[in-house]
Amino acid sequence: MVMLYVFLGLLVGAALFLIVTLLRRGNTPTEQADGLLIEQRSRTRARSERARFGTFGAHFALPTMADLYRG
Question: Residues 47, 40: contact at Cβ < 8 Å?
Fold first, then answer.
């Protein structure tokens, strides 16, 4: 029974550590030019991925070489 309490204590401690670490980092916007460019590229890529892997793109697209490889 003691080992169960120790295990649960370690799990709770690890969870608290992760929560504190994430809260300390914060969600501040990037102010450097490099960071802004990276964020812009990420947003652009996410937009294109959403369009490419949407319902229409997934069901009505022509097969690709990756589809043939799965064979």
Answer: no
